[in-house]
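Render this sequence as a predicted structure.
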Amino acid sequence: MRYGIVLDTSFTRHLTPPGHPERPERITALLEAFENWDRLGELVQIPTATAQQEWIEAVHSPENLVRIKATSGQEFSQLDVDTSTSSDSYEVALLAAGSAVSLVNELTRENIDSGFALIRPPGHHAESTRSMGFCLLNNVAVAAEWAIQKGRAERVAIVDFDVHHGNGTQEIFYSRSDVLYLSTHQYPFYPGTGHFSETGEGPGQGFTANFPVSAGTGDHFYCTLFRDLLLPIVRQFDPQLILVSAGFDGHRDDPLAGMNLSTEGFGALVNLLNDVAREVCGGRVLYLLEGGYNLAALCDAVILTIDTSLQPREFDIPAEQSEDYEVYRAVLRSKLSPYWEL
C-alpha cells in the first residue's frame, strides 16, 4: 500500500498561550514518535502546500478570512475565548488546509492509496463565518469542497469521531446533498450542537447524521454503533471519497473529555472505516487530525491508525451487554429511518 503522510515542523509555528491544550508539542511529539517507528520508511511523504484563497472562500466568508489574516504579525490575538493566534498562525492555517487538499490531490491522482494529514491548527469547529474551538479554518471542509469543485468526487462522506461535535463542518454542508456528514461525539458537551434531531435542511435533509453519546462510553458501544448505524449510511450514500476528522480526544487518558475509548478501540474503528472504504470507493479514505491532547495517547493512536491501514488486523474488543445501547439504537433508527435503511 502507498500510504501518504503530511507531517512537518512548520505546523509548530502556530503558537498558543501557555497552558493551552492545542499546542505545538502535539506535532513535536508526533515527529519524535515517527522517528522511533520501524515502518516510517513504508510511508510516502507528501510536501506541505499553502491553500489558495479561492479554496478557502469556497467554504468561508471573505470577511472571516480577512479577520484571521489581520492577526498576522501580532504576538497574540484572541478570536474567541478558546481560540488564539500568534504572528504566523494565519500562514500555518493556510498550510494546514492546503496540505489537506494536497493529500486529496495525491489520492485522487492515484499516487497514493490512503493517507493521514497530521496538521494543526485543527478545523472542524470553524464555521463559514467564524473561527472557534481552537480552529481557524475548516480543513476537512476545504478539502471536501475542493474535491467536488475539481471533479475528483461527486459525493464525499465526512466521518468525524472527535469527542467534540464538528459544528463547523455540519454548518458548512447542512443544506447539501453531495456531502454526507456523520459525527460521533460526547453529548451534552462543547460546543452544544450535535443532537440527533439535527439532520440537515432543504436539499441536505438527511445528509447530516449525529450520534451523540454519553460521557464514559467505551470501545464496544462505539464499535457497535459504527457497525449498526453509521457505516450502513456510508454504504448507502456510496461516496467516491471518505474523509475522516480524526480526533483522539475521546481517549480515556485525554484531559479535556470524559470518554472511555482505548487506543485499541480507535484501531478497531479505523479497521471498520477502512473496510467500508474498500467496499464503496476503492479504499479511498484520508484521515485529518483534529483533537487529542494527551501526547502519549495521541501518538499511540495515530501510529496504530496508520499501522492498521498498512496491515489490517482484528482487535479484541470485549463484548458488553447494554440495555442503554438498545434504547439508543431504537431512537436513532426512528430518527434516521426516513432517509436511510437501518
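Summary. The two ends are 32 Å apart (CA to CA). Residues 3-336 form a domain with the Arginase; Chain A fold (CATH 3.40.800.20).
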